[in-house]
Specification:
The complex is a heterodimer of chains A (216) and B (221). With 216 residues, chain A is mainly α. Chain A has a single domain, classed as Orthogonal Bundle (MetI-like fold), CATH 1.10.3720. Chain A is built from eight helices and no strands. Chain A starts with a helix and ends in a 5-residue tail after the last helix. The relative contact order of chain A is 0.15. Chain B is mostly helical. The termini of chain B are far apart. In chain B, helix 2 runs antiparallel to helix 8, helix 3 packs across helix 5 and helix 5 packs across helix 7. The radius of gyration of chain B is 21 Å and the shape is flat. Chain B has a single domain, classed as MetI-like (MetI-like fold, Orthogonal Bundle), CATH 1.10.3720.10. Classes of the chains: A mainly alpha (216), B mainly alpha (221). Chains A and B meet through helix 3, helix 6, helix 7 and helix 8 of A and helix 3, helix 4, helix 8 and helix 9 of B.
Chain lengths: 216, 221
């Protein structure tokens, strides 16, 4: 058992790098795209708001596994042939975008309307109100739930193993295929995932404590 | 080259999707039922137990919540039988896993709900001479359930979606039905369009039903 674990470590290390890369790409892409879509959901014109609301509701309404298969097996029909890695990142980004949109909507929604009015009253333009009045306050409300949601991206990334991407989950299964030591290796994999996600949720808890009091 | 959508083959095999959806719902209901029991018992134990009990429950919650469900599913189905002498089919194994998973999320929901029961209500119970047990059954639990309803609805719907993971150990639920049709007919886009619709409609139907219950029982605050 110990020899199997020692044998597995380098493979799991390589898989871990892929898991982290997939998660990092997903999280950063969805932060930018979802952030913009979230702002557009709050302040955009009506048709755009409907589209984003529909997108978010549909994506959050289906299992992420179905989304991943849909993107990987379905997009080639539309002429877009993606490698498993790109398809995995795209599907996870779409999934995470919907979460970020709701995080942004919640954060902006929690700021009193008077703040926007006050900005207007002192003659700030709309972009200036957004950047100098809303954003600094909204970011503190946005950060804790968002970081908490980053663990969903890491956990969701385990599903890309089903497309044949050699991430942490997939490398665990490959080593089990060679050693037949299923239990110790799954437990070892669980430890890897736990360490990443627990660190993230601790970080989120600390931020929440720090930002829970908002100076008016 | 264009791709012409052809749903005929899907309708021919629709019984696999329909049966799959029913199984998905059954898995969700079973796991939620067991998960609620685990969650309630552990939440009460957490609130009334000593430091050791709290630490043990906290460890269970943190471990389950920070590990991907797919890994837990593999661990229970392929890993556990190596250590303990048990044999179970994929469906039983998945229900056990999802129940444990649900339990970890529900403990947190119930625990914060118990903490949110106003102290005045418990004092009032004391004042009219209820024993601690009676206070739990007649005051704290009913109030806690009404407080936690919105969070419960979200957890239930998300657990329903998580049943799709059962397909990785060949439990013939909805996602597995979709994969079967893919492998046998190659009508991939059609299958996933239909299956997406089925998950959406079912998920939102569950949510609307639960929202109705919420409106009936919610506490105006």
């Amino acid at each position: 058992m110990l020899s199997a674990i020692l044998y597995a470590i380098p493979f799991l290390g390589a898989g871990l790098a892929v898991t982290l890369l997939v998660s990092l790409l997903t999280v950063s892409l969805s932060l930018v795209i979802g952030g913009l879509m979230g702002v557009a959901l709050v302040y955009g014109p009506a048709p755009l708001r409907w589209v984003i609301r529909g997108f978010s509701d549909v994506v959050r309404g289906i299992p992420i596994l179905v989304l991943i298969f849909f993107v990987y097996y379905g997009l080639p029909v539309a002429g877009l042939n993606l490698q498993p890695f790109s398809a995995a990142v795209l599907a996870l980004t779409v999934f995470k975008c919907a979460q970020v949109i709701e995080n942004v909507r919640g954060a902006i929604g929690s700021i009193p309307r008077g703040q926007m009015d006050a900005g207007k009253a002192i003659g700030l333009t709309f972009p200036a109100r957004l950047v100098y009045v809303i954003a600094p306050q909204a970011v503190r409300r946005f950060l804790p739930p968002w970081i908490n949601g980053v663990t969903d991206a890491v956990k969701g990334s385990a599903l890309v193993s089903l497309l044949g991407v050699t991430d942490l989950m997939h490398s665990i299964q490959q080593v089990i295929g060679r050693t037949y030591e299923a239990l110790p290796l799954y437990v070892l994999g669980a430890v890897f995932y736990f360490v990443i996600n627990y660190t993230l949720s601790m970080l989120s808890r600390r931020l929440e404590l720090r930002y829970s009091y908002i100076r008016d | 080259m264009g791709y012409a959508l052809n749903f005929n083959l899907i309708w021919r095999h629709f019984d696999r999707l329909w049966g799959g959806l029913i199984l998905s719902l059954e898995l969700a209901v079973l796991a939620i039922g067991i998960g609620v029991v685990i969650g309630l018992v552990l939440a009460i134990a957490h609130v009334s137990g000593g430091r050791l009990t709290r630490a043990a429950i906290g460890a269970y919650v943190e471990v389950i919540r920070n590990v991907p469900l797919i890994l837990l599913v593999y661990l229970v189905f392929y890993g556990l039988p190596q250590a303990v002498d048990i044999a179970y089919d994929a469906t039983t194994s998945f229900v056990a896993t999802l129940s444990l998973y649900a339990g970890a999320y529900l403990v947190e929901v119930f625990r914060s709900g118990l903490a949110a029961v106003p102290a005045g209500l418990i004092d009032a119970g004391k004042a009219i001479g209820l024993t601690p047990w009676q206070r739990l059954i007649h005051v704290r639990l009913p109030t806690m359930l009404r407080i936690t309803l919105p969070a419960l609805s979200n957890t239930f719907v998300s657990l329903f979606k998580d049943t799709s993971i059962a397909s990785v150990i060949a439990v013939p639920e909805l996602t597995y039905g979709a994969q079967w049709i893919n492998t046998n007919t190659f009508r991939i886009v059609e299958v996933y369009l239909i299956v997406t619709g089925m998950y959406l409609v079912t998920g939102y139907a569950i949510l609307l039903g639960l929202r109705a219950i919420e409106r009936r029982f919610s506490i105006g605050r």
